[in-house]
UniProtKB/TrEMBL annotation:
Name listed for the protein in its UniProt record: SGNH/GDSL hydrolase family protein
UniProt entry keywords in alphabetical sequence: Hydrolase, Signal
Residues spanning the signal sequence: 1-33
Entries under InterPro entries matching the protein: SGNH_hydro, SGNH_hydro_sf
CDD domains given in the database record: SGNH_hydrolase (cd00229)
Hydrolase as UniProt keyword: yes
Pfam families in UniProt: Lipase_GDSL_2
Single GO MF descriptor: hydrolase activity
Organism annotation: Mycetocola manganoxydans
Amino acid sequence: MNSSRATRAPRLRRGLVVLAVTAGLGLSGCASPAVSAPAPTKATQPIAVFIGDSYTSGYGASIPTLAWASLVASGEGWKAVNLGRGGTGYLATSGLNGCGKEYCPNYQEMVAEAVKNRPDVVVVAGGQNDFTAFTEDPDATRAAIEATYDSLREGLPDARIIAVGPSIPAARAAGPTSTTFDALVKEAAESVGGSHISLIDPPIFTAAMILPDAAHVNDEGHAAIAARIEEALAD
């Protein structure tokens, strides 16, 4: 009898050890649950600031989303900040008749507002409102163009800068003033590492795109501007 009990006892103890280890593993699993990996975050949408005149502000488009700046921003996946103001230019300021406000700054003055938005991209478009000043004082106009791009690069050293030249409706053929002005914008933008897109070489507008005021364009004209810019950005 005694020898039989002695034989069974170790077996029972071994069984208790196995149960204890198993229970310990189970408790350990409860104490340290698996940690799931964090969900991936969506990439931040690049911010693009648009500086320009009435074309840039969307004048002539039937709805804001059909304005050329909106079309380009949508096509490129940018979050647009539109600082376009009617009647303005690199040198030209505007008021109630042009932009609907008491005062609208020129492009150089608008740089500070652009910098505040900390954009990844800055698009500066237009210049046709400076043509009169350019013929009267080309040096002052050239200085304003250069100062605009110099200030942008100083305030936004890592931003992509894109210059879009002046818009000339089909009723106004591009002449020496507009082509020379376009070349100055190109030179100034490229001097700070920016790029330039011309809307007059070759011209993009047809008579069907021009509004009755002979100065602005309709939805088709805005689409033509956007198409030219998108094509250039894709190169």
